Amino acid sequence: MDSFDATAADRFTFGLWTVGNPGRDPFGEPVRARLSPVEIVAKLAECGAHGVNLHDDDLVPPGSSAAQRDAIVAGFKRALADHGLVVPMATTNLFSHPIFKDGAFTANDPAVRAFALQKTMRAMELGVELGARIFVFWGGREGCEADACRDPRTAIARMRDALDWLCEWTHDQGFELRFALEAKPNEPRGDLYLPTTGHMLHFISTLAHPERVGVNPEVAHETMAGLSFVHAVAQAMEAGKLFHIDLNAQRIGRFDQDLRFGSEDLRQAFLLVRLLEGTAGGPKYHGPLHFDAHAYRTEDDGGVWEFARGCMRTYKILAARARAFDADREVKELIAEQPSRELDPLLGRYNKQNAARLRALDLDAAATARRGLRYERLDQLMIEHLLGAR
Ligand code: GLT
Ligand code: MN
Ligand code: MN
Fold first, then answer.
1. Distance of CA 247 from the midpoint of ligand 2 (Å)
2. pTM listed for this prediction
3. Could you say which of 56, 57, 58, 246 is catalytic?
4. 300 belongs to the catalytic site
């Protein structure tokens, strides 16, 4: 045990489906036995996690009777209390059942949309019963291959109807649930609607209750699209919309790998942790730090907990590296060395006076263009901190 081992104060969480992943993939059968939710709670607590998240079906197998459901939930609550774990987030599985083959909220068949809403209402009741305050929406089947099957505008409108409907319903129930929308560009469908965090952020602004709805960006999903995850998270934070986050690792251009946090693209991982922890200044992210990842298929149960500890340790090591980087005098000087800030007030606010002053400024474009910005040095310092050389 060292200072990088997690404690509950670190706010790390895992989904039941993450450490419970038995290693099945599209080409092969499971390689590990399924762990029960109660076993997972005990093991996560032992690893220093703060909480556990779930889909409805992860805890209560579909087809359970009301009495079976209540018994399962009671047993799970007991395990949470015994091990001091919380459930900060819950979600609905709207992708496994064959009924969702053409989507859930966006499906053409109204009976499918009704089933999706009903399943989500029940999943929300379950989440609230377990104390969840955030409800994630990942539209894994909300997409298409045969694009002619529906007007994509209709898909967006149906998605809006479903979210507005659920916002009203949770309000009537007195549930204090905030919604977090998770984007993904493709997989399992050929193309998913609302494929990036940026698409989600705009979509939220079209909802009836935008204040209740934010985003749940995932490292792997933004990276699959070849986009900067750090920029997506920054835009969400700047808009006050980072309600939740799915941490993992991914190589660009691959299937959704959901790898151990920080195991690919350390540079992005470092910049992400630096942003979330606010070590460069600016507001910090205070929500749960959720790992939506799973162990390699090569692993036995021991490897799964090695994986879970690794996610949390890497986050804490990167946080320490980010603090050291931002406290480094040379780094501070290089960042402060940016050109004079005297024009900022003029640029920051339009009024007629400022416009006239700006119009009349004598700007030396050639001199400004000649100035080297020393970003090579700044970036090298970042790499040296990241490699532990400073
Ligand atoms: C599924 C998906 C994840 C989502 C989960 C929530 S389920 O594992 O790959 O990205 O966050 O529905
Ligand atoms: Mn996810
Ligand atoms: Mn993923």
1. 8
2. 0.97
3. 58
4. no
